[in-house]
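As a warm-up, study this chain.
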Amino acid sequence: MPHRKLTMLGLLGMFAVAAVAQTKIEKVVPKDVSPANGKAMFHEYCAACHGVDGKGNGPAAPALTKAPADLTQLAAHNNGKFPDVRVSRYIEGMDTVQAHGTRDMPIWGDVFKSLNRDPAAATMRVSNLTEYVRSLQAK
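Now compare it with the structure written out below.
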């Protein structure tokens, strides 16, 4: 019986290695969109998961372990007030949403810092992206 368990573990290990070998991880350099244009940044950096309309229905959404947030409902879920600071801190990667468990969303603050050597440009990106998300709120 112990031999049988070792054989099963060995087979499972081989399948795991084969699965990892077939997974191709590709690093993509983000397009440098103007930090002044929140809408263009949203479409470039966020719409793949959150959808062009911000409702969490982007083309990459089905591949995620947790569905992307419906960004049009942030104010509604916060007693009608848009949570500016919380959204900015989440985009930057400073905060996580504990109820979500692991973080699938990229830490855009780090990405934005890599696009420009100027920290003010990264701050401008987060601010303008936050303002654009504010504009998506359901009326």
